[in-house]
Design a protein that fits this description.
Helix content: 55-70%
Oligomer: single chain
Largest sheet: 2 strands, antiparallel
Keywords: Membrane, Signal, Transmembrane, Transmembrane helix
Radius of gyration: 19 Å
InterPro entries: PAP2/HPO, PAP2/HPO_sf
Structural class: mainly alpha
Number of helices: 8
Shape: globular
Protein name: Phosphatase PAP2 family protein
Strand order of the largest sheet: 1-2
Length: 272
Amino acid sequence: MSYLGWSRWAPLALTVQLFSLSVTSTAAAEPTARGPAYKVHLELDLPIVLVAGAIASSFFFLPEARGVACAPNCDRSRINGFDRAAAGLYDPTWSVVGDIATAATLIGPLVVIVVDEGLANGLRDDLVVAEAMLVTSALQVSLSYAVARPRPRVYNDDAPLDERTDANAARSFFSGHVADTVATSVAALRTFQRLGKPALGWAVFSVGLAGSGVVGVARVASGAHFPSDVIAGAAIGTGIGILLPAIHESGVQILPFAQADGGGLMVGAALP
């Protein structure tokens, strides 16, 4: 399965899994001395899972969005000098490499956490790490639609016409693959630091960083992203990977509420 197909189903599947875990974890036994690193609360975790999952799953409606405005003959001279060399790249083999590296880099930290802490405690902490990934995906989907930056492959005739003119061809900024892998690696590092195991945390983070590097190179070489998309993705993934564990450490509650005169739903956060 291509990443495009996988990415359409992954947010929904992850949302369902996190929803179930966020409900069942609250009834689990009290944490032992081995962990978990975080306490799971419906008031915090359920809104994160539902809101981020709903936004990330909007990728299902990608075919309904507009495609690349300049396709099929985009002008590479309009690209900034830093990214211009990547314009026109297209290599499906690198796309496969990137997909495999992404999956391995995302799954690896979650497995290590469970192996280290045991199933019950490990799944609690995996929930927080996975939330970082889900929130990152939600932000990437939102910004990619808002920015509508053409992917590098549209600046050449090497890619098939449908891959240069469809809606996905206009979703270059920022790299969700890189952002997700970095967010997962950073959140795992913060988890092991909180457990008092910094050496293991830095080992997992180093492997994750190497994997993210492979993902970044593959995404550029495949014609899916410009170098600046990858850099932005790494920066955003780092920020969210720090933020989500910090929110759980601080005791913040995220509270959904409706305004009588607003006709919508807002999400606020307040310290207890």
